[in-house]
Amino acid sequence: MSTPHAAAVKTEGLRRTFGDFTAVDGIDLDVRPGEIYGFLGPNGAGKSTVVRMLTTLLEPTGGRAWVGGLDVVAEADDVRFSIGVALQEAGLDENMTGREILATQGRLFGLNRSEIADRIEQLAPILEMRALDQLVSSYSGGMARRLDLAAALMHNPSVLFLDEPTTGLDPPSRLRVWEEVRRLNREFGLTLFLTTQYLEEADELADRVGIINAGRIVAEGTPSELKRAIGTDVVTVVVDGDADAAKSVLEGIAGIEGVDVFGGEVRVSTEN
């Protein structure tokens, strides 16, 4: 069984209900191989439910879904071996070291001792080397999140699902996770399906963004396309000096559509 065409992730009319409540209401997705797809929406919009269906943790009520050409219901076992998953709650054993957790993950996916050692060495840049042999109980929140990311990559998956990977992290830890996401995509051509509730995260990382609300896709496109669709932004700048000189400088900046002076204020219209 395979997808209608070569998509990394594809859904057709995907639906999930819980009793009388419709959590996911007939969504269509088409994620291209090698792209970072941002799945943006507020809490309760249906993001995590979609991820749980795509990763075979929850069966759809209706519609169909494929990951890497494999049907998530009919070929669930094959899907599990082809994907990596890092959910909101890492579930790491705090009494193990980072190296032990990675080795255990490798064994679960059938890697031998040599393959496990090689893979840990490849993934070591995600963590600080010294952290590999420390107990997880000593890890910061950001370090634990990066270990969970490394564990999801032990078996070299073709698609990586990240469910709100930076929720609860401080700004430096969030930036470190962003750097790793970019590096994995750039160096390994990995397809990433990333859910987030943060606009800036989707804007910073994603090649394309799908916006979900109340279980439905309400918009989709590149970050630039989505920002342009909202319309022109107007920024008012109060100038302590020569407003006309400020206007001349601002008019030379790319993306500026118009500059008007009103007394000591300069109003700037931008593309997004």
Describe the structure in your own words.
This protein is an alpha/beta fold and 272 residues long. It has nine helices and 13 strands. The chain has two domains: 9-229, P-loop containing nucleotide triphosphate hydrolases (Rossmann fold), CATH 3.40.50; 232-270, no CATH class. Helix 3 (98-108) packs across helix 4, helix 3 (98-108) runs parallel beside helix 5 (141-152) and helix 5 (141-152) packs parallel to helix 6. The longest helix is centred in the middle third of the chain and has 18 residues, at 171-188.
CATH T-level fold name of the largest domain: Rossmann fold
Report mean pLDDT, rounded to a whole number.
89
From the N-terminal CA to the C-terminal CA, the straight-line distance is: 43 Å
Biggest sheet details:
6 strands, mixed
Count the DSSP helices. Answer: 9
| Order of helix and strand elements from N to C terminus | EEEHEEHEHHHEHEHEEHEHEE
CATH architecture of the largest domain: 3-Layer(aba) Sandwich
In order across it, which strands form the biggest sheet? 6-7-8-3-9-10
CATH superfamily of the largest domain: P-loop containing nucleotide triphosphate hydrolases
Strand content: 25-35%
The best one-word shape is globular
CATH class of the largest domain: Alpha Beta
- Cα-atom Rg, whole angstroms? 22 Å
Number of domains: 2
Q: Helix proportion of residues, in percent?
A: 25-40%
Low-confidence stretches: none
> What is the count of β-strands?
13
What structural category do the secondary elements indicate? Answer: alpha/beta
Subcellular location: Cell membrane
Keywords: Antibiotic resistance, ATP-binding, Nucleotide-binding, Transport
GO molecular function, one term: ATP binding
InterPro entries: AAA+_ATPase, ABC_transporter-like_ATP-bd, ABC_transporter-like_CS, ABC_transporter_ATP-binding, P-loop_NTPase
